[in-house]
Structures are given as structure tokens and as C-alpha cells.
Amino acid sequence: MESLFLNDNGIDTDGAYALSKLLVSNSNLKELHISNNNIASCGLSVLFEALAKHNKRLRLLDVSHNVIDIGVLRGLR
To answer: Which end of the chain is more exposed for a tag (fewer CB within 10 A), N or C?
Structure first.
């Protein structure tokens, strides 16, 4: 799987935790689209951590229109 489109699916923080487990086992993902969901900052942090540790091929990550605070963005550096 190279691209995963999960926009507008009502994914919440619990769903983000489940998705992070999937991402650990899929290191070939190049695009992840999860915009317009209900993922809070703690869920996004878990996703970002899973991607940073297990995926070096990701080129596009769309998390727009979720609940993102500045602390989560600072963690992306």
C-alpha cells in the first residue's frame, strides 16, 4: 500500500491509536490523508511518532481540519 485515504471518516483519537499500530507494520506508505476527522492532538502525536520511527518513505501527510495545537507541531521538528 503506497497511499491511504481516510479523509472525512470520523476517525477520533481512539481510531488514531489503532491507525498508528497499522502504520508500524506498513513502512512502504508514501501518502497518508486523514483530513477532516476528529483526531485530537494526543492522537496525532501518536501517529507522528509511529511514522517517525517506522516509515522513512512518507512524502505527504495531510492532517488538515483536525484538532492540532502548537505543541504537536513543535514535536515534528
So the answer is: C
